[in-house]
Amino acid sequence: MPADSEVSARNAASALARWAVLPPAERSRRTRPGREAFLASLDAQIPPEVSDPADRAERVTALLKAHYLKMQANSMKARRLKREADARKAADEILDATGLADCGEQ
Length: 106
Fold this sequence. Notes:
- By secondary structure, this protein is an all-alpha fold.
- The chain has 2 domains: 1-44, no CATH class; 50-106.
- 78% of the residues lie in helices and 0% in strands.
- The longest helix has 46 residues, at 53-98.
- It is flat and about 70 Å long.
- The mean pLDDT is 92.
């Protein structure tokens, strides 16, 4: 019996293949409920005393932008941490290869 990760990978590949052949309008239709639920969750964060629909829409837009900026910041941090880890690993490999890693240790 295949491992769960193998089944999951096959299912994901199958879903992507089906998604790839759908027309854009159909893809948009299928994701609409999720988009609407997300926007509704943002709207729920706005105080109820803000009743003007235009004002609420403007605030939802601001919350959406804030959400994307947080995602951007998290992505930038993850890439920076990976770069730093890769640099440390490369430096350690160089030190190990040259025999300098043991210098200074007693």
